[in-house]
Design goal:
Blueprint: E1 6-14, H1 19-29, E2 33-42, E3 45-53, H2 61-75, E4 77-83, H3 84-90
Antiparallel strand pairs: 1-3, 1-4, 2-3
Helix pairs in contact: 1-2
Length: 93
């Protein structure tokens, strides 16, 4: 995917109705396109990872991260986002 600027979004917390919709809503509001989603429920806990293309995002990454974190507080979960390059470097062996 040329010209794609991808972020990794992680969501952790107690499962409840509306978490995926809340995260997707923030991304859509700022024109970030969700490319892939993986989630699992471990007993009552949700663990989710999203990959999103932010090449046409209407805000900078810092602002998007703040908006996602704010949504997480409202939803009672932790939402983090980082640029794909930083994620790859952090997890390289």
């Amino acid at each position: 995917m040329e010209n794609a600027q991808r972020i990794i979004v992680t969501v952790l917390g107690r499962d409840r109705v509306g978490i995926i919709a809340g995260v997707a809503g923030v991304l859509a509001e700022h024109n970030a396109n969700i490319l892939d989603v993986s989630q699992t429920i471990l007993q009552e806990f949700l663990a989710m990872i999203m990959i999103a293309d932010i090449s046409r995002c209407t805000v900078d990454l810092g602002t998007l991260k703040d908006r996602l974190a704010e949504a997480g507080r409202e939803l009672g979960v932790r939402i983090d986002a980082q640029h794909e390059d930083a994620f790859v470097c952090m997890h390289r062996i």
